[in-house]
Automatic annotation (TrEMBL), chain A:
Domain of life (superkingdom): Archaea
Compartmental location: Cell membrane
Family statement: Belongs to the NrfD family.
One of the Pfam families matching this protein, by short name: NrfD
Gene3D superfamilies: Formate dehydrogenase/DMSO reductase domain
TM segment ranges: 21-39, 59-84, 96-113, 133-154, 200-221, 233-256, 277-298, 318-336, 348-371, 391-412
Organism: Halobellus limi
Protein's name according to its UniProt entry: Molybdopterin oxidoreductase
Keywords assigned by UniProt, alphabetized: Cell membrane, Membrane, Plasmid, Transmembrane, Transmembrane helix
Gene Ontology CC terms: plasma membrane
Keyword Amino-acid biosynthesis: no
Major place of residence: membrane
TrEMBL record, chain B:
Domain Molybdopterin oxidoreductase span(s) in chain numbering: 304-725
Official protein name in the record: Molybdopterin oxidoreductase, molybdopterin-binding subunit
PANTHER family: TETRATHIONATE REDUCTASE SUBUNIT A (PTHR43742:SF9), TRIMETHYLAMINE-N-OXIDE REDUCTASE (PTHR43742)
Chain segments carrying region Disordered: 932-953
PROSITE patterns in the cross-refs: TAT
Family under the similarity heading: Belongs to the prokaryotic molybdopterin-containing oxidoreductase family.
Lineage of origin: Archaea, Methanobacteriati, Methanobacteriota, Stenosarchaea group, Halobacteria
Superkingdom in the source lineage: Archaea
Molecular function GO labels: 4 iron, 4 sulfur cluster binding; metal ion binding; molybdopterin cofactor binding; oxidoreductase activity
Pfam families hit by this protein: Molybdopterin, Molydop_binding
Keywords: 4Fe-4S, Iron, Iron-sulfur, Metal-binding, Molybdenum, Oxidoreductase, Plasmid, Signal
NCBIfam families found in the cross-reference section: TAT_signal_seq
TrEMBL record, chain C:
PANTHER family: PROTEIN NRFC, PROTEIN NRFC HOMOLOG
Annotated Basic and acidic residues bias: 26-35
Assigned keywords, A-Z: 4Fe-4S, Iron, Iron-sulfur, Metal-binding
MF terms (GO), sorted A to Z: 4 iron, 4 sulfur cluster binding; metal ion binding; oxidoreductase activity
Descriptive protein name: Fe-S-cluster-containing dehydrogenase component
């Protein structure tokens, strides 16, 4: 336990005030731009997009599944700490959980803005369809967010309690509220938290894997109309690339927050661990994608073959070669190949960033190409690139995510107040 | 569970029963029918939601039957009205258009509802026998109409319509207009206008009768009258006192419009003005085909159509009845059913048209080489003795009727071969009978039994091949000459010219002659729209002479079957104190150049511009060049109704027209009556708002491709532009101002000789409806209910514009209920049999009455009820009377193979010659499946189904040029290059490219318009994104492009080398050639 | 109701009444002739008819021949009884007597089912009827040999349903095969297939789109959230999103008329109001069917290729067509089981 002190210092935010201003200004620009784009989206309706009846799903859906993936990936990294007790991971446990929560919030914003009738967003909770993957998904998302919040709570409560008792004034009240009034900081209470953290995590894993992420994959895979999606491997690839992006994100956040918020030194062993994890996921992802392509080409299903040809050589092949192969596989693999680089925070931030951006293209390449090839010979080929409104709203929503994360990171004890949960 | 012994009820032991029944299993073979009760349905909701009971029911008071005007087929239609919120100027909205169920044209292959049926029952299909939606595959409420017809709503409600009379601001074609009042426009046109500096009709018009002028002219020639006196006397009346044969000054007032001929041409132009120049669209449409047929038959026969229902072999030749021709609404369902029932159809067309898609054999002929193909078939037929000798050896009606043949041919008739004009010998000419004998005017044939030449009516069987001298005169039979013509080339040579293998020619000829009389040809514009189109059509027509299939069930039909329109109750064609039009027509039809006073003036041949001595004066393509060159005289005032006469778009080389129209010296006054600011009317001085076809009267004909009689009447169904006036009304006012006959008080005589006024269009058309109503057996009187329905539907449709009392006053009280009967049904439609209403109630709509009744109105035994019953001609006496106005050579009395030539004889496209074209690809074109000429481009519904006109190109030609489907290309036509899109398809002959005509507009919202200082931009493409999904052949659910989409085919057509201001013409048939451009294409 | 002499009979339930049976039973093997012995009618005729009726049953004699043989004689012999007693053997078109014979006998024929279905219709079957009630199972049959690819159906549908730009409930696809000059094209019209196992319904998260008992797949514009999942899932590309476009720039009153799809009249098209932002598709024109008119596309079909009717009525034209050897469905292997059939 930390030493009791009446003058307790708790400043989890930016170390550097100027950097804070620059960052908030940056986020404000994103959000303001997004707000204007959203205004256009609301007044002009879906006509503000480049979506059509031929390509009905576009950037928003791609970002939606991207952030769901990010969330699931981050969550799974956190479970390494909570459920499997990978010791060193505890430092990043709350970070990962909080990132997972923010990602889900962002994902749901993308779902919302994508609805033709946004005012009806609560209808899925009023009417259901048992056979609809999407119907199941929205319920799963709610449950999943509940689990994430619960985990974060159990993981962080003791520090919230400490803050509530040690700080005073409004901040104390705030942390007391966040701790739901449980301000007991005894070992027993910590053990209670610990126990529940593990339990919730155990419930969370299948939910995250099978319902949330596999489910999002199923969302596509059930579409018999689109053989490119309609494959057994599809949900698996979904999860692997989710892990890929989640790990990369957590690695990035870990380095950046440690450096910029905590002003601490980065734990290079932990970094190496994360980097190796990332390396493994990249290899599995690339392998599965290759297998998937091979299956498609050997199946000779004309629709699947044609879609793969679109992916590899079509109008949007640049995104496959540059972003998926380049940014999410080759470039990070190169950076991850040397042990010394793996232990260099700046290099790993670059590798993480590259992967995180590259996986966005993976999502686009999941959503778009299957819609390019017509479902019936004789119907028009699709074509799609997002409009400025779509880009703008997307950036704005991501900005909201940044904002949520930053505010949270500035307020919450995302880094354990002491070395770990076990003091 | 075991049986409970004690459980006995009503004295029956269950155990006993079960036991007793046990043995049944051994004997009874149970049926397999079982109960399926628990198929759980995952996807039906427990409760029905979003289900209402608003079915949009309607009744007869919401329906008006009239005629579609979206293309020149003119289908009878049912207009279903809808109430609007009253925001626009319109009197009513239109909910839906459908075919008129009273008309057999729109219910094929089913039967129409009986004519007497109550409109209230007809409205939603409640007539007994009309079938029902669940049991019958097609039940009858609305009839069929094509996609263009469906889109008619968007023609009436086109927001680019002209709403007020408009006068140009700035020079012609400036695109700027100001609105003016009707009174002002009428005054300006009559009096002239200083602002625009044009003369008025008062100044222009002059008339003197032909007898007066010609007797004075005779006097001048005889020296009985001085030329100066003559000049002075007729200075204000004649076009040119030096050339009185040009006729009265009235001839310089020219009407272009064509439809409403009975009213505007006959009554107002010919008899009112005394001008011969009222022009319609024939020259750009099908006139060479029409004339080729007219010259092949003695009685009127303009068109070739089969009796589809009974035809066994149909050869469709250069026409597209599935989606074009006139019209697809009944030809397509008749054809698809006939094909499904085993009829064989082959299609001759350079491209795989929608009709060719359904063909047994597609014959991709070389464009313009149809004559060679037809003569090749003729040669095979004659060589293989497959022609009908019995038929051909009948020289006259009596001989034919002995063989139960309604028609006969001129094959055995003798021709005076030493006569330069090549006329046929008459019995009197050869001294076979005395000059005053009844048979003196008979043709002459050589009797096969006696070997003697005799008057044809006295010969039973005549000799085909004759080449002798009779009475000192050399005569040869028609057959002898026809056969010689056919044998000028071998089948292989013909095959080479036509680009069709000799085997294929043999196959076609064999099949054509293997079905007795049940084989027929349907041909139209494809072979005809070349400069050799007349001869091509002649060659095709004579193939049917060889089998004599006319008037036979399953053969070639000629049912000009209608009801009387112009006489009966009212003599609508007669005008008290009328003028008689005379003089040389502006378009020089029906006159030989050398018979005019211009021949000497211009030093004989070649004439400055083409003459059309054996065609009607309807070669519209010549109008503007003639006006510019004042040949034979200038045009002082031009009145244009561009409906089907949108010449800037419709004439090959029409892009030369604007410059002529913009020249106020060439034509001082141009008035257009138009629904919109059109491609042609935009060059006028005035545009007067016309009602569209859904808002006005008209009496359109039906092409002779049906079995029964019909007569259609169009009536106003809605009013969208309250200030629009039908051109008839405008002209009535102008004529009244000018005090011309034919309008105003005492204009129309009835059968008793009483005179009736003509103040408004309806005064004429309601009388026309009365004539229709009283023809043959007069129709029944409308009941009280029907009269009410009539009033209510017209009140619903026309609102304020409907003046019942005024309409009633146009006919007598006795006639009115019959007129209402006709109007409530959109015309008169003959029923297939007598007592049809009872039969219909019994057998229903899915029953072939015409076929199954012994005595139907469609058939007369094995013959058609409506017949040609006349001679058919291999050899035309009329044609060689005409001479080519460039060379002075006589035209050919027989079918022939001809090259496509310019006026001066320069070869544009060789058929039997070997001239090489200047560019490699021949550009053909055709009617847009999704558009009715240009007039329907205002419909986004239609532009969605096909957003532009891609250029069809064979993969062989495309690969050479590195072109793929959907590529942007440039079409280089020499004098013009245009941008287009490629459609790579095996469905077009290599070396030929083609596209839909009807695109690339500049009028009606295709470009910006400025009215009263307000500029309205051109129509934009639909769609919220840049993705249009318009790749050719996969444009399903694409977006409409702007109204200027595609390219204008006629603006890449070659100009005539000699004339330079218009396209090429067929001097015999009168057509504008439209399929003879040579282009190259490359990727953009 | 039971006969009156049934005393204590309960209505509607078969009752063993009091009437004594007058059953005569002979011991010997019966001779058919004796059966008719005490009947005043011509015994030989009756027996001949009965024996020939057997031959008909064994297929040795056609029903037509039978009736031609006996109609006159039986009418003479049995008189009014023969003409007036209902007898399916005389009346049923599709069993013993062909239409031609029936006509020659001057009696009309109609199939039993047709009549009973009609009767059922008049009565109503206890449900409230109307769209979706399942009184019929609507099905469409499109004859590809007859379809000329004219798109009249497409435009008729646009006019009937007033769909906005880019929304076309029906399209006609063209497929070209072969090389010049042996080229063929097939025109394949594509409305909504109203699948029996509809993937679109399967995926809709709010069951806004669902299958009605008449086989038609409905879209509840008041429930649909516009997620377009169904758009993705439909194997036939039959669904279109309403982006809110209109024709107002070039057509007066374009938004004034809308279609009462599924019997719901929404009034004029308004910016931002459903069905804008919803998914849309062909409704089989149930509102027209309900008022007794063919769907707009069927009514106008220029090739006489489109047919509509009740697939549940085995006697309906479309049921027979859908049953023919030429019939197939698009993408049969998807298991969607469309209610639109095509004829090869």
């Amino acid at each position: 336990m930390a030493t009791q002190s009446s003058h307790f210092e708790f400043a989890p935010g930016f170390e550097d005030g100027r950097l804070r201003i620059v960052w908030y200004a940056f986020v404000a620009v994103l959000v303001a731009g997004g707000a204007y784009a959203t205004y256009l989206r609301l007044t002009r309706g879906m006509a503000s997009t480049n979506l059509t009846s031929v390509v009905p799903w576009g950037a928003w859906v791609a970002f939606y599944i991207y952030f769901v993936g990010l969330s699931a990936g981050a969550f799974l990294v956190s479970t390494l700490a909570n459920v499997f007790d990978v010791g060193a991971m505890h430092r990043i446990d709350r970070d990962a959980l909080f990132a997972a929560i923010v990602s889900m919030a962002v994902a749901l914003l993308f779902v919302w803005i994508d609805l033709g009738r946004m005012e009806r967003m609560y209808y899925p909770f009023v009417w259901r369809q048992l056979t609809s993957a999407l119907s199941w998904e929205v319920h799963a998302y709610v449950a999943y967010i509940g689990i994430l919040v619960a985990e974060l709570y159990f993981s962080m409560r003791i520090d919230l309690a400490r803050l509530a008792t040690r700080l005073d004034g409004t901040r104390a009240t705030l942390y007391r509220l966040l701790a739901l009034g449980r301000v007991d900081t005894s070992d027993a209470s910590a053990a209670f938290d610990e126990r529940w953290l593990k339990r919730v995590g155990i419930v969370g894993i299948p939910l995250a894997i099978f319902m949330v992420h596999g489910g999002t994959g199923v969302l596509f895979a059930v579409s018999k109309a689109r053989p490119y999606w309609n494959s057994g491997l599809f949900p698996v690839i979904f999860i692997v690339s989710a892990l890929l992006s989640g790990t990369a994100l957590v690695m990035m956040i870990y380095v950046l927050r440690t450096r910029l918020f905590d002003g601490d030194a980065v734990d290079r062993d932990l970094l190496d661990q994360l980097a190796q994890l990332l390396l493994g996921f990249i290899l599995v992802d690339a392998a599965l994608t290759a297998i998937e392509a091979l299956i498609a080409f050997t199946s000779f299903h004309p629709h699947a073959v044609e879609t793969w040809l679109v992916v590899l050589f079509g109008e949007m092949s640049w995104s496959f070669w540059w972003f998926i192969v380049g940014a999410s596989w080759v470039f990070p693999l190169v950076l991850l190949s040397k042990r010394s680089w793996r232990r260099t925070p700046s290099v790993m931030v670059l590798a993480g960033l590259s992967t995180v951006v590259g996986v966005v293209a993976v999502r686009f390449n999941i959503v778009i190409p299957a819609q390019i090839t017509p479902v019936l010979e004789g119907l028009p080929h699709g074509s799609y690139f997002p409009t400025p409104v779509e880009w703008g709203t997307s950036i704005g929503i991501i900005g909201v995510g940044f904002l949520l994360y930053t505010v949270g990171a500035e307020l919450l004890p995302l880094t354990p107040l002491s070395g770990g949960d076990h003091e | 569970m075991s049986t409970n012994d004690t459980d006995d009820r009503a004295g029956v032991s269950r155990r006993d029963f079960v036991k007793a029944a046990g043995s049944i299993g051994l004997v009874a073979a149970a049926s397999n029918a079982a109960v399926e009760m628990d198929v759980d349905d995952l996807w039906t909701d427990d409760e029905r939601h979003y289900v209402g009971t608003d079915y949009g029911e309607y009744g007869a008071s919401d329906v008006i039957h009239t005629t579609c005007g979206q293309c020149n087929t003119f289908c009878p239609i049912k207009v279903r009205l809808a109430e609007g919120s009253g925001t626009g100027e319109y009197s009513s909205l239109v909910r839906k258009l459908a075919g008129n169920p009273y008309s057999f044209l729109n219910t094929q292959p089913f039967s129409q509802v009986p004519y007497e049926s109550d409109p209230e029952d007809v409205a939603m299909g409640d007539v007994e026998g009309s079938g029902d939606v669940d049991g019958d595959r097609w039940s009858l409420s609305g009839g069929r109409i094509c996609l263009k017809g469906q889109a008619g709503i968007q023609t009436a409600f086109d927001s680019y319509r002209v709403r007020k009379p408009m006068k140009r601001v700035g020079p012609r074609g400036s695109g700027e207009w100001k609105t003016v009042s009707w009174d002002r426009v009428i005054r300006d046109i009559v009096e002239g206008d200083d602002e625009l500096g044009h003369p008025g009709l008062k100044d222009i018009w002059g008339y003197a009768s032909q007898e007066a002028v010609m007797s004075d002219w005779e006097a001048v020639q005889n020296g009985e009258m001085s030329k100066a006196d003559f000049d002075e006397k007729y200075a204000d009346d004649l076009v040119d006192t030096d050339h009185p044969d040009l006729g009265p000054k009235a001839n310089q007032i020219v009407d272009v419009g064509g439809f409403r001929r009975n009213f505007i041409r006959n009554r107002l132009w010919h008899q009112g003005l005394g001008s011969i120049n009222s022009v319609h669209h024939a020259g750009t449409c099908g006139v060479s085909s029409v004339m080729g047929n007219v010259r092949s038959h003695d009685a009127p026969k303009k068109r070739q159509y089969p009796d589809i229902e009974n035809c066994e072999y149909l050869l469709v030749w250069g026409t597209n009845p599935m989606v074009a021709n006139k019209g697809p609404t009944w030809l397509a369902p008749k054809l698809t059913n006939a094909i499904e029932d085993g009829m064989r159809m082959d299609v001759v067309d350079p491209r795989l048209s929608k009709t060719a898609e359904k063909a047994d054999t597609w014959v991709p002929v070389e464009p313009g080489a149809d004559g060679a193909l037809a003569l090749g078939m003729a040669r095979w037929i004659i060589e293989h003795d497959r022609h009908d000798l019995t038929y051909l050896q009948n020289p006259s009606r009596s001989a034919a009727s002995d063989d139960d043949e309604p028609t006969w041919s001129d094959a055995t008739h003798l021709v005076l071969v030493d006569e330069p004009s090549g006329s046929k010998a008459r019995a009197g000419d050869l001294g076979l009978v005395s000059e005053d004998a009844d048979t003196a005017d008979d043709f002459v044939a050589v009797d096969a039994t006696t070997g003697e030449p005799r008057p044809a009516s006295e010969v039973d069987t005549a000799v085909l091949d004759v080449d002798v001298t009779v009475d000192g005169r050399a005569v040869r039979s028609v057959w002898s000459q026809y056969r010689e013509r056919v044998f000028e080339h071998t089948v292989e040579e013909y095959a080479e010219m036509a680009g069709v293998s000799a085997e294929r020619i043999a196959e076609l000829a064999d099949e054509f002659t293997s079905h007795g009389k049940r084989a027929a040809i349907m041909a139209y514009r494809g072979p005809a729209k070349h400069t050799n189109g007349f001869y091509n059509t002649r060659a095709i027509a004579t193939l049917q002479h060889l089998i004599g299939n006319y008037d036979w069930k399953g053969g070639q039909i000629t049912p000009h079957a209608g009801y009387s329109t112009m006489s009966g109750r009212y003599e609508l064609g007669s005008v008290p104190d009328s003028h008689s039009p005379w003089g040389i027509p502006l378009l020089r039809g029906g006159v030989n150049y050398e018979d005019t006073s211009l021949f000497d003036r211009d030093d004989g041949y070649p004439a400055k511009r083409p003459w059309f001595p054996v065609a009607p004066p309807q070669a519209t393509q010549e109008l503007y060049g003639s006006a510019a060159e004042e040949y034979p005289y200038g045009v002082e005032a031009l009145f244009i109704r561009p409906y089907s006469n949108n010449h800037v778009m419709a004439v090959a080389g029409g892009d030369e027209i604007p410059a002529i129209l913009e020249d106020t010296d060439a034509i001082p006054l141009i008035v257009a009556s138009d629904t919109v600011i059109g491609d042609t009317s935009q060059y006028a001085d005035y545009i007067l708002p016309e009602p569209t076809y859904l808002e006005r009267w008209e009496n359109f004909g039906t092409y002779p491709n049906k079995r029964l009689a019909d007569e259609k009447i169009s009536q106003p169904a809605v009013s969208v532009v309250p200030d629009a006036r039908p051109f008839e009304d405008v002209l009535i006012e102008l004529w009244s101002e000018l005090d011309l006959p034919g309008v105003g008080e005492d204009a129309i005589p009835d059968a008793e000789g009483n005179l009736w006024p003509l103040e408004r269009a309806e005064d004429f058309y309601l009388k026309l409806a009365a004539n229709i109503a009283y023809d043959r057996d007069p129709v029944a009187d409308a009941s009280e209910d029907e009269l009410r329905v009539f009033r209510e539907s017209h009140e619903n449709g026309l609102g304020e514009q409907f003046d019942l009392d005024r309409w009633r006053a146009a006919v007598t009280d006795e006639e009115w209920p019959k007129v209402v009967t006709v109007l409530n049904r959109g015309g008169r439609f003959e029923e297939p049999t007598d007592d049809y209403d009872e039969a219909f109630a019994e057998h229903g709509h899915d029953y072939d009455y015409a076929e199954r009744a012994d005595d139907s109105n469609a058939y007369d035994g094995d013959h058609m009820r409506y017949k040609l019953e006349s001679r058919v001609d291999f050899y035309s006496e009329v044609v060689p009377k005409g001479k080519h106005s460039y060379t002075g050579e006589r035209f050919d009395p027989l079918p022939r193979v001809d090259d496509v030539e310019h006026y001066d004889g320069t070869v544009q496209a060789a058929v039997d010659g070997d001239d090489e074209p200047e560019r490699p690809l021949r550009l053909i074109n055709w009617k847009p499946r999704t558009q009715g000429m240009h007039r329907t481009q205002n419909s986004p519904w239609l532009r969605e189904t096909r957003p532009e006109n891609p250029v069809w190109i064979n993969p062989r030609d495309a690969e050479e040029r590195g072109i793929e489907n959907g590529d942007d290309i440039v079409v280089d036509a020499g004098r013009e290059t245009v941008d287009a899109v490629a459609m790579v398809t095996g469905g077009i002959r290599p070396g030929v490219v083609g596209a839909m005509w009807g695109w690339g507009r500049t009028g009606d919202g295709a470009t910006a318009e400025t009215i009263d200082g307000e500029t309205r931009p051109a129509v934009e493409a639909d769609g919220h994104s840049s993705y249009q999904f318009d790749e050719p052949m996969a444009e399903e659910a694409s977006y409409a492009k702007g109204r200027d989409a595609g390219f204008a085919i006629n603006h890449v057509q070659p100009l005539d080398e000699e004339l330079g201001d218009t396209g090429l013409s067929d001097l015999v048939g009168g057509s504008n050639a439209q399929y003879d451009a040579f282009v190259d294409v490359e990727r953009r | 109701m039971s006969t009156t002499d049934d005393g204590d009979a309960l209505p509607g339930i078969p009752n063993v009444g009091k009437a004594d049976l007058d059953a005569m039973v002979e011991e010997e093997r019966p001779d058919p002739r004796d059966e008719l012995a005490d009947v005043e009618a011509d015994t030989d005729l009756g027996i001949a008819m009965a024996e020939d009726a057997q031959r008909v049953a064994r297929g040795e004699l056609t029903g037509d021949e039978y009736w031609e043989k006996y109609d006159e004689a039986a009418a003479d012999e049995f008189g009014a009884a023969y003409r007036e007693t209902p007898n399916p053997a005389v009346d049923a078109g599709d069993q013993t007597v062909s239409t031609e014979t029936a006509e020659s006998l001057s009696c009309t024929v109609g199939s039993m089912d047709a009549v009973s279905t009609e009767a059922a219709q008049v009565e109503g079957d206890g449900s409230e009827g109307g769209i979706g009630a399942g009184d019929e199972k609507w099905g469409m049959v499109i004859d590809l040999q007859k379809c000329v690819g004219c798109d009249s159906c497409t435009v008729a549908c646009k006019s009937e349903n007033r769909t906005p730009p880019g929304v076309s409930y029906n399209v006609v696809m063209e497929e070209e095969h072969g090389e010049f000059p042996n080229v063929t094209r097939t025109n394949v019209p594509r409305p909504c297939m109203q699948c029996d196992n509809p993937p679109c319904v399967q995926v809709c998260p709010v069951s806004a789109t669902y299958k009605m008992d008449d086989g038609v797949v409905n879209i509840d514009y008041d429930r649909c959230i516009g997620c377009r999942y169904c758009n993705i899932a439909c194997p036939y590309g039959a669904r279109y999103f309403d982006f809110g476009g209109d024709y107002d720039d070039e057509v007066d009153g374009a938004g004034e008329v809308t279609s009462p799809e599924y019997g719901v009249d929404r009034g004029p098209r308004e910016d931002g109001e459903s069905p804008i932002g919803n998914i849309r598709k062909c409704s089989f024109c149930t509102h027209r069917l309900e008022r007794g008119e063919e769907p707009a596309c069927v009514e106008t079909c220029i090739g006489d290729a489109r047919n509509m009717g009740d697939l549940d009525d085995p006697d309906s034209d479309v049921a027979k067509m859908a049953d023919s050897s030429r019939a197939f469905q698009l993408k049969e292997d998807e298991g969607t089981d469309p209610n639109v059939y095509y004829l090869k």
